[in-house]
Amino acid sequence: MDSILVTGGAELRGEIPIAGAKNACLTLMPATLLTDDPLTLTNAPRLSDIRTMTVLLQSLGAEVSALQDGRVLAMSSHDLNSDRADYDIVRKMRASILVLGPLLARHGHAVVSLPGGCAIGARPVDLHLKGLEALGAQLELKDGYVHASAPGGLRGGVVEFPFVSVGATENVLMAATLTKGTSVLKNAAREPEIVDLARCLRAMGAQIEGEGTDTIEVQGVDALHGATHPVVTDRIELGTYMLAPAITGGEVECLGGKLELVAAFAERLDAAGIHVEETSRGLKVARKNGRVSAVDVETAPFPGFPTDLQAQMMALLCTAQGTSVLEEKIFENRFMHAPELMRMGAEIDVHGGTATVTGVERLKGAPVMATDLRASVSLILAGLAAEGETLVNRVYHLDRGYERVEEKLSACGARIERVQGQ
Ligand code: EPZ
What is the pTM of this model? Predict the structure, then answer.
């Protein structure tokens, strides 16, 4: 298992290109199952999760070719020969459940393994299942698999989500595009990845209105055709790299960044004393003056503060002046980075979904353990400004969501290298 070795202390200066969004690509790829025609995605990120989704789609008989060094994904599900998504693939990546809606809508049946939980929580998929049942799907749970069928096809209906779910919105939205009649998704997720999916589906001939709001209306069509679609910029990678100069001092321009993707996050950075400026090429970030100020953070569905940036923001607040309170409202166990940051000298008190961070002058480098994707990168951010060396172990978590992190950061002056595992 590889590790990442960071030697803290360097101020960062330079540019970081932001890639296409992992969480957009992971829902855009299953959309290929909705048509026989080729679907091509450009600006795709080169990540292990994308490779996992590729293997899953290929296991169903779809063709997926990674072209131009993985930046372009050329896909076709013309010759599907299976409707079964096996546990050994699904357990590696929960987003695999997103093949359920498209398979059901296009082929009238699907057998998809339940994903099981992960480090940050139980992460059930009940909203996905209830949403598809509201469109007429018949579902049966057997030996850890969802056996879904829609004899005579799905029919339009109203899907009322009891609370916001990104994945359930995506699954139901994709299914609704080929569902006879009108489907209305209420209390739908509003994330930019949902808007990006709707734009792609519309380019494929779907009739969708309201994406980006909490009510999405879909008129089903008989068939969708192919398209070529650019994956939207990754707002979580963007926010992550905006924090690098915030933590180290210096100034970094995140190329491709747009303020609208990270408005709530940027507002908290501004309150903490970090200057964010929109340029013609992206977002330029620098500290306004000396030490960062403590701020409170509460995660919420978009357009609120993203849960996927909570761990990274905590790394900044560990050395802020004053005490910060972070409320994690989306997942039940998303503070596993806290004990690792405390190994570096951070003062953090965790009670349930609340973490209270009392800023210290400076963290001290230490060997730490990555537990999940966003926790791993928060430890790297903390190591950038810590005194001495920080060795982050189990960086396979990191490679799921960040391409070439050591290259992007060392290009701005960070002292960071990948240490090959034993
Ligand atoms: C997506 O996960 C993202 N993953 C997550 O990013 C992100 O943290 C999350 O949305 C919230 O923004 C992808 O897009 C691949 P949810 P998803 O359904 O769809 C509960 C990362 O680091 N829930 O919005 O699984 C759930 O347990 C990952 O890139 C149910 O109870 O998130 C959670 O507490 C981590 N039943 C809350 O709702 C359901 O059927 C929000 O989950 C579905 C969800």
Answer: 0.97
